[in-house]
Design brief:
By secondary structure, the protein is mainly beta. The protein has no helices and 39 strands. It folds into 2 domains: 179 residues, Jelly Rolls; 275 residues, TolB, C-terminal domain (Neuraminidase, 6 Propeller), CATH 2.120.10.
């Protein structure tokens, strides 16, 4: 499905921050201030509901030994990832007007910098000035993005810089820059330059994220960073953050009335109300060591959970409990068993079980009983989920050499591969109308049988009938991002978790 271009919000916003003076020290959205760098004028407006910025700027150029542009910035230290979906407003005057991200140690026009710049003619370039007053250098991207919603990422990683760009919906193309030394603390932010000091250009910036990644030596399942609960609008392609927590929560699952999300936070389940923006603890009795594998029944009355039972030496065991809370009822006799799906008629649960060193897909009656093994291929089979009509179970399997999406009949017959690409694809989730699959894609450098925390990942959307998949979210996450069914009941939105170091 090609995502339609998002509609521009009116400039009469519920909250607007504008600056028409040099050095306007007024916070706007996630940024600390906005400023004119060099000659020219500009402004910024912010819609907090859509979390969208409209930035205007003039300025003769960003080139040679000095720059003129409007800058919306914050001070930041260490490693970070800057990401946005950007688009020029209007046809413009100069083909080399520029928008994007810039990183610089000062607000001086001749400052050293590293910049990811989208030009009016579609050119993407990684521009940089090695020291103050030096001549700007440029590394042009092979990707051209004319008249496009451009995804622009600029990352600082241990003193190196990486620009990654794509037309929204496509996969990112990355360039690496070494040998430019900027101080640890810098100004980082969005900019607009008109390339003509008699003209003011405007651009929109949505899906703006300033991510502080995990430390390189973090220990998985011991060290955690912060969590963002995001809601993605399928029609507009816009994602907004509705809740943040400095620790770890994972795997949002939409309630059947569409009013709340259920996620796991440090072993406990919480219900996040989307109207009040408040989280309340769900009573799961003794089950307080839940992992991120929890699924609501199709009627919304029950929730199945995976709890690490002390009496089973900490192995994950599947239980059911009323969605409103109560005492869990044990379902699986053996562990580890990691729940992933509930049949539409409420009779069956499907899960991943490790038995004799092999991970396979099993199903069991929701009331308990003998488990039924559905897959037997060597290697990991995981993430099973029923289609809304109950005709298939979708899952991910490493049997082809990469982790790919597969499907089979509910009795395990007719196993067939659904995705065929160079990514490692996990956790297929089907839209309520059964027409679309969304799944999590890890890059090829991640082991096929691993789904780690804190990586650059993609959420991809493809028709249930097959065909090209499109990227709908470019996230920093992985484990816990979209482990469980995450579609809103109306099929218009998705929920997922992204990650960043957050200040408590």
């Amino acid at each position: 499905m090609r995502i339609p271009r998002y509609r521009l919000v009116a400039l009469v916003l519920s909250s607007v921050v504008c600056g028409d003076m040099l050095g306007a020290q007024v916070s706007v959205g996630v940024f600390a201030a906005h400023t004119e760098v060099g000659r020219g004028r500009g402004s910024v407006s912010y819609d907090p509901r859509q979390q969208m910025y409209v930035i205007a700027g003039s300025g003769q150029n960003m080139w040679d030994s000095r720059d003129d542009f409007h800058f919306v910035w914050k001070r930041i230290s260490g490693n970070f990832i800057l990401s946005t979906r950007a688009r020029f407003l209007g046809r413009g005057v100069e083909e080399h007007r520029k928008i994007g991200w810039t990183i610089r140690p000062s607000l001086d026009p001749g400052s050293a910098h590293v910049t990811a710049a989208l030009h009016g003619n579609g050119l993407m370039s990684l521009q940089f000035r090695r020291e103050a007053g030096a001549i700007t250098e440029e590394d042009k991207s092979a990707d051209s993005l004319p008249d496009a919603d451009a995804v622009i990422q600029l990352e600082r990683r241990d003193g190196e810089y990486f620009m990654a760009v794509a037309q929204f919906g496509d996969t990112l193309v990355t360039q690496r820059l070494t040998g430019v030394r900027l101080p640890d603390t810098v100004y980082a932010g969005l900019f607009v330059c008109s390339h003509n000091d008699t003209v003011t250009e405007r651009a929109t910036f949505s899906n703006v994220r300033i991510t502080v990644p995990a430390k390189r030596d973090f220990v998985a399942y011991r060290d955690y960073i912060g969590s963002n609960l995001e809601i993605f609008d399928v029609q507009t392609g816009n994602a907004t953050i509705v809740h943040q927590y400095a620790g770890s929560f994972q795997a949002p699952n939409w309630t059947r009335d569409g009013k709340a999300l259920i996620y796991v936070q440090e072993g406990r389940l919480y219900r996040f109300d989307l109207v009040s923006s408040s989280a309340t603890l769900i009573n799961t009795g003794f089950a307080t060591r839940n992992n991120n594998d929890h699924v609501l029944s199709f009627d919304g009355r029950m929730i199945a959970i995976s709890h690490h039972a002390v009496e089973d030496s900490g192995a994950s065991i599947v239980y059911t409990v009323p969605a409103s809370g109560g005492t869990p009822t044990r379902v699986t006799a053996k562990g580890p068993s990691y729940l992933h799906g509930w049949s539409p008629d409420g009779r069956w649960l499907v899960y991943t079980g490790e038995r004799n060193g092999e991970f396979d897909v099993y199903k069991i009656a929701a009331t308990g009983g003998e488990e039924i093994r559905l897959t037997t291929a060597p290697g990991l089979d995981d993430g099973p989920e029923y289609s809304p009509d109950g005709a298939y179970i979708y899952f991910n399997s490493v049997r082809s050499g990469r982790m790919q999406i597969w499907r089979m009949r509910p009795d395990g017959s007719g196993q067939e591969q659904v995705t065929h690409d160079g990514f490692n694809n996990w956790f297929p989730h089907l839209s309520p109308d059964g027409k679309w699959i969304v799944y999590l894609a890890f890059p090829p450098d991640v082991a096929p049988d691993d789904h780690p925390f804190y990586k650059h990942v993609l959420l991809r959307l493809m028709p249930i009938t097959g065909g090209p998949a499109r990227v709908i979210a470019y996230a920093y996450g992985g484990q816990g991002t979209i482990n469980v069914p995450s579609w809103a009941p109306d099929g218009k939105r998705l929920a997922f978790v992204s990650n960043s170091v957050l200040t408590r």
